[in-house]
Design a protein that fits this description.
Elements lengths: L1 H4 L5 H28 L8 H28 L4 H11 L4 H12 L5 H25 L23 E7 L5 H10 L9 E10 L7 E5 L4 H4 L7 H15 L3 E11 L4 H12 L3 E6 L5 H12 L4 E6 L16 E7 L3 H13 L5 E9 L5 H19 L4 E7 L3 H9 L7 E5 L22 H6 L6 E6 L10
Parallel strand pairs: 1-2, 1-5, 2-4, 5-6, 7-8, 7-10, 8-9, 10-11
Antiparallel strand pairs: 3-4, 6-11
Length: about 475
């Protein structure tokens, strides 16, 4: 009753939920189930009554499943998803139990029927839960989009980036990152999609708000009422001040932390983005870090984690007015190749200095080295036509040598790009994973936790339902 009277999504709803959630869950809810179970009398059930009630319930559940699956197939829903929906609709919660208790108190239902229905509902819930978890895989829909990366896109094609924001403090660092991304030609502009991720509070279902273009004039007002308006307003101002950038669309996703990654993947697939950027800070709450880890598992494109050491509340840096040093650490692998592809696109901006450091070992992996050498060869061709790229190749002996060389770079550059996943058995990195605190950053990104430079950790997504080649 309190939930019905509190306004949806308001500060009052958030305060009421925080105050009463623990009391409802651990004080009021257990006695309700205890009282319902106290009325159950399994030893007084007669076999004839059991058979009659079970047949009626079986027919009712079967009819519901058939109707739901038929309607779902009519709207071209996959058979696995339609079956999961039908099974979930057969699971009843506490309101169903309270309804049965009210029927018994009003003498509209016998004690035997009540017992049979309670046990049947319990059995269906126990069976349905593992079946749904086994059949429903949201990442299955992203299997056909594993090639949506920067490395596999055309050089002069449009670059689409999905910028995820948790709060207003994330905006300046993301804008700095986007400003360093270069629109190569007028036709190959950078299209930015903005997604503000908000925790679901005081609402029963998730909500995805799609901000229409006609509302752009409202976002330019200085007196924006909520955080989403202020965030979207900042991105629209960035679009107006920088040529070659366009804001494709802005979204606000209000959902639980456990399903935020599905909102990100859904928009990335729908808009066919090449890169998803997500903010990271070691001061972030654990729930935000969990969201980041979930996003890394199953999106349909590459993911970049932006780790900003500097004060994120400061003004955005105007990259077009001054020279900035960018470093890219190349060790090898799919993630490093994706990071290098993005670095070379940034290097097309004439006032940016890119330094590529490649760490090699005496006995490299020949199969991986062949793919790495092909991309490095393309980098050499680019170096011949530009003056703002420096390539350095260094041989390292072990992981300690790698760590010491990397730590020497952290205070010399404004922005450092690294790959997330590497071959842990390589002598270059063997042993560093044991000291890694933030696994979502990878062993190399975790080494820069105490530096001053902004770090971008890039991961090329390989879907679990596709080949890893």
């Amino acid at each position: 009753m309190i939930g019905l009277t509190v306004p949806v999504g308001s500060p009052i709803a958030e305060a009421v939920q925080k105050k009463l959630e623990c009391f409802d869950t651990f004080v009021l809810l257990p006695p309700s189930y205890i009282i319902a179970g106290y009325r159950v009398q399994p030893f007084k059930v007669i076999w004839e009554s059991f058979v009659v009630v079970e047949i009626m319930m079986l027919l009712a559940y079967s009819a519901k499943i058939i109707v739901v699956i038929s309607a779902s197939l009519y709207f071209r829903m996959p058979i696995e998803d339609s079956l999961c929906l039908a099974l979930l609709l057969n699971c009843d919660g506490i309101f169903y139990m309270l309804y049965l208790m009210a029927m018994v108190e009003a003498e509209l239902m016998s004690q035997q029927t009540y017992t049979i229905m309670i046990f049947t509902n319990l059995l269906i819930t126990m069976v349905t839960t593992p079946i749904v978890k086994h059949l429903y895989h949201p990442s299955r829909r992203y299997a056909g989009y594993k090639r949506q990366t920067i490395l596999n896109s055309a050089v002069n094609s449009e670059l689409r980036i999905l910028a995820c924001v948790y709060n207003q403090e994330n905006v300046p660092s993301i804008l700095n990152f986007l400003e360093a991304t270069n629109p190569i030609t007028k036709e190959s502009f950078v299209c930015i999609y903005v997604l503000h991720l908000v925790e679901l509070v005081g609402r029963a279902t998730s909500l995805l708000i799609e901000h229409r273009e006609q509302k752009k004039k409202q976002f330019t007002r200085a007196n924006s009422r909520n955080s989403s308006d202020k965030i979207i307003n900042a991105f629209h101002q960035f679009e107006q001040q920088n040529e070659g950038y366009t804001i494709g669309q802005c979204f606000t996703a209000i959902s639980p932390f456990s399903s935020m990654d599905n909102d990100v993947s859904q928009i990335a697939m729908k808009k066919r983005t090449n890169l998803v950027t997500i903010p990271f800070s070691e001061l972030d709450e654990h729930l935000y870090r969990t969201v980041n880890r979930n996003i890394l598992q199953k999106p349909p494109c590459s993911v970049g984690i932006l780790f900003d050491h500097k004060n994120s509340s400061g003004a955005a840096i105007d990259v077009s007015m001054s020279l900035h040093n960018i470093a890219m650490i190349y060790i090898g692998g799919a993630d490093d190749r994706e990071a290098l592809a993005y670095s070379m696109r940034m290097a097309d901006k004439p006032n940016l200095q890119l330094s590529v450091f490649r760490f090699t070992h005496i006995k490299p992996n020949q199969n991986a080295k062949k793919k790495d050498d092909e991309l490095i060869g393309y980098l050499w061709d680019k170096i011949m036509n530009t003056e703002n790229i420096v390539y350095k190749e260094e041989d390292v002996t072990d992981c300690a040598d790698t760590a010491s060389r990397i730590k020497c770079l952290e205070d010399s550059y404004d922005f450092i790009i690294v790959g997330r996943r590497h071959d842990s058995s390589s002598p270059i990195l063997h042993g560093l994973d044991e000291w890694c605190v933030f696994k979502e950053l990878g062993v190399i990104g975790d080494l820069f936790r105490f530096g001053n430079a902004t770090v971008g950790v890039c991961r090329k997504i390989i879907c679990r339902y596709t080949s890893t080649n």
